[in-house]
Design brief:
Layout: H1 5-13, H2 58-80, H3 88-96, H4 100-115, H5 119-140, H6 143-154, H7 163-179, H8 185-215, E1 218-220, H9 231-243, E2 250-252, H10 269-280, H11 292-308, H12 314-318, H13 327-362, H14 372-387, H15 391-394, H16 400-416, E3 419-422, E4 434-439, E5 445-454, E6 464-469, E7 480-487, H17 500-517, H18 533-543, H19 550-556, H20 568-576, H21 582-600, H22 613-623, H23 641-644, H24 653-670, H25 676-687, H26 695-703, H27 710-715
Parallel strand pairs: 5-7
Antiparallel strand pairs: 1-2, 3-4, 4-5, 6-7
Helix pairs in contact: 1-5, 1-8, 2-3, 2-4, 2-5, 2-6, 5-8, 6-7, 8-11, 13-14, 13-21, 16-17, 16-19, 17-18, 18-24, 25-26
Length: 723
């Protein structure tokens, strides 16, 4: 969610404490800059320092990494060994300005490694993961640097700083302590070794996941077996096969989730089962992509690292700088939701089983028990029966460009007064990418927005936002932010028609983009989405509420061929069905969130061996009360990239943030809904403040009260669910 190498390194390490290896920098390049055309050795001359994608070569990264680390270490040593008395300017601000080359290079590198990787980038990621970890540790564990920061921390209220300056001193001190600055020299050496190994293991895990999801496609010989898919989907499957030199066949590609889109429509139950089993077995069936040994080792190292820092487990260590604060708080919230979610899922399952029984009886066939590969297919049938519509009726009204420009952008205009203008003069890293200038109501430029919608083999799964340039008064920079989705690309010449889930995801990710674009802080450390992990999803979830707001929906939900508005009756059905299948969706999410907590709430001696990883997973789900065979976790451990990266012990953050989101949606409804006045309040009190104010204080400043769980239970249809 941010471009700072500090967080990129934390992701690589599987850590939660940001390192100080890459404050967004304003320093000039070192005098010994190699005489080359490397685009990272100076700021981009493009508008808002937009990256020079047309000039960046893979061969530029390693020289920039090496020179950038050398430059920053020289800067840090100069700060740490400065004979002058520590001041805010000569220590904290100097650190904020350090590492210019490294910042530019790693920002682009880690962004492209997620959005458009290749063999060269994979090799670089593997080669440099331990080097970056060592660089980060060399800064974080520098004893002289810590002494200077500690001196300022102990006198922070006497430095004449404003609230944001005091908070910056506190952030530096807390992060250095969390990184191990107070450890003995012997323990610092242990920490460095752990971080280096975790970096390498994390990189290997993520590369295995991407490689296997690309390798685990399902080949179908006969188009008859694809009954239920649309003509466009079948054509896309044929193109996918052709791209793999399987002319005349069809390929169903997988996404990095347990559930797969094709399961909703395929009538062939055997094929559904084959797709499902291919999905859930990833990372655990032996061979080069098996992740069980990596999981075991990563979890053991994390537990040992937590113990070294004086914590009983990694969750205790990792949650210390989040709004939740403790594992007990997370367990309490998840434990409150789990019984209601499973009870709701079981009621939904009864409806699905009744549909199966009736259908089989009518066909004169024996019935069968509902299985995970049946859920999406029959829930769609039940939805059709209950609400008299299906996804195929909706998709013609959700053409992607219309959703983005006439929906997402239109809502931002209504709420915040923003306007957007596509530009075709800036270089892009892939032909599918679109770029927009973003303007405030007074015509001043707010940001540049990059939109990268399609799935491809070079792109990791899921949807995310990142910043290429982060706002701060210190640097004078304005934001350049990007949204990435994984929408299947249709055959050439065909429109991109979205599912309702893809529509809401587009609104969701743009909520992150708004958080980054509205940033109005002094210091790079606090820019944009640099907030606790269990707060960062909150603004994005709020933005989802405009997807089915009547005036917004009416503006973008138009038939891609005729331009006709979605019929009001169909629109009403979409809104009425908002809580449909929430038992399933909540249970599959909670399964993953609770699994994450169980892995990170054990000590090193409780970590299972590789052969027992899946058994541990099953028992963890059962002990948490969330195990329900027809509804597996959204991610199983062996392809759970979130928790092997930056969301370790933090996948709960989505629903924790949703508590705040549900309260905020209620606030909007109670105060007149979509309006400029409400949007301006949200922007000024919360979205623009980044991490410069305590996250929960930002919520209270906006909402005027403490968060309450009841709006979430209502939103998810869990009120009165019982056990």
């Amino acid at each position: 969610m941010t471009t700072r190498l500090a967080l990129a390194l934390a992701v690589a390490l599987g850590a939660t404490a940001p390192a100080f290896a890459n404050p967004v920098a304003a320093a000039a390049a070192p005098a010994a800059t190699p005489a080359s055309a490397n685009p990272f050795f100076s700021e981009s001359p493009l508008p808002l320092h937009y990256p020079q994608f047309d000039k960046i070569q893979d061969s530029d990264f390693a020289p920039a990494f090496d020179a950038g680390m050398k430059q920053q270490m020289e800067e840090v040593e100069a700060i740490a060994n400065n004979k002058a008395k520590p001041t805010f300017e000569n220590t904290i601000i100097a650190m904020e300005k350090s590492g210019a080359i490294l910042d530019r290079a790693t920002t682009v590198f880690f962004s492209l490694s997620g959005a458009d990787t290749n063999d060269a980038r994979k090799k670089l990621q593997a080669e440099y993961s331990a080097k970056f970890a060592a660089h980060s540790d060399a800064i974080n564990l520098n004893g002289e640097l810590f002494k200077r920061v500690e001196t300022l921390y102990n006198s922070r209220d006497k430095l004449g700083l404003d609230a944001e300056g005091v908070r910056l001193v506190e952030r530096y001190y807390d992060n250095l302590v969390r990184a191990g600055a107070k450890l003995s020299d012997a323990d610092k050496a242990k920490m460095k070794a752990m971080n280096a190994e975790l970096a390498e293991l994390g990189t290997k895990f993520s590369q295995n996941v991407l490689a296997e999801v690309n390798a685990s496609y399902i080949v179908v010989d006969d188009a008859k077996d694809l009954d239920g898919l649309s003509a466009e989907q079948i054509a896309a499957a044929a193109e996918a096969a052709k791209a793999r030199n399987l002319d005349g066949k069809y390929v169903i590609a997988l996404l990095n989730t347990t559930g797969q889109p094709a399961l909703t429509n395929l009538t062939n139950r055997d094929l559904r089962r084959k797709i499902y089993e291919a999905s859930i077995s990833r990372g655990s069936k032996g061979g080069e992509y098996d992740n069980t040994a990596l999981v075991s080792r990563i979890m053991k190292l994390r537990a040992e690292k937590a113990a070294l820092m004086g914590h009983p487990n990694f969750a205790s260590y990792g949650l210390g700088n989040q709004t939740a604060k403790t594992p007990e708080a997370v367990n309490g919230m998840l434990g409150q939701l789990a019984p209601a979610a499973v009870a709701n899922a079981k009621r939904e399952a009864a409806d699905l089983q009744a549909m199966i029984d009736a259908e089989q009886k009518a066909a004169g066939k024996p019935t069968f028990k509902l299985e995970p590969w049946d859920w999406a297919f029959y829930s769609e049938k039940v939805r059709q029966a209950k609400y008299n519509f299906d996804e195929s009726q909706l998709k013609p009204y959700f053409e992607m460009k219309s959703v983005l420009e006439d929906g997402v952008f239109f809502a931002a205009g209504k709420e915040f007064g923003l306007s957007f203008k596509q530009r075709i003069d800036l270089p892009v890293y892939h032909p599918d990418v679109t770029v927009y200038d973003v303007f405030n109501e007074d015509g001043s430029q707010l940001a540049i927005f990059i939109f990268d919608p399609y799935a491809r083999a070079s792109k990791r799964g899921g949807a995310w936002m990142n910043s290429y340039v982060s706002q701060s008064e210190l640097t004078g920079d304005l934001p350049v932010v990007a949204n990435h989705l994984n929408i299947p690309k249709p055959p050439a010449g065909q429109p991109t028609l979205l599912t309702w889930d893809e529509v809401t995801t587009t609104f969701h990710e743009f909520g992150h983009a708004l958080h980054g674009m509205f940033s109005n802080v002094k210091y790079p450390t606090f820019s944009g989405t640099s907030v606790p992990r269990d707060f960062v999803e909150f603004p994005s979830q709020v933005n989802e509420m405009w997807a089915d707001e009547p005036t917004i929906l009416a503006n973008y939900a138009k038939h891609y061929q005729t331009g006709a508005a979605m019929p009001q009756a169909l629109l009403d059905k979409v809104i009425a069905a908002a809580k449909f299948n929430q038992g399933f969706m909540t249970t599959e999410y909670l399964g993953a969130a609770l699994l994450d907590q169980r892995w990170h709430q054990i000590s090193a001696d409780q970590v299972p061996e590789a052969k027992d990883v899946l058994a541990f997973e099953r028992k963890a789900l059962e002990d948490s009360g969330i195990y329900y065979a027809p509804v597996p976790p959204r991610y199983r451990t062996t392809y759970f990239s979130h928790i092997m990266g930056g969301y370790s012990a933090g996948y709960y953050a989505y629903i924790w943030s949703e508590v705040l989101d549900a309260n905020t949606q209620k606030w909007f409804r109670d105060n007149g809904g979509l309006s400029r006045a409400n949007g301006d309040r949200f922007r000024q009190t919360l979205l623009s403040r980044g991490g410069s104010v305590d996250a929960m204080q930002l919520f209270r400043d906006f909402a005027g009260h403490e968060p309450q769980i009841e709006p979430l239970l209502e939103k998810r249809g869990l009120t009165g669910a019982g056990n």
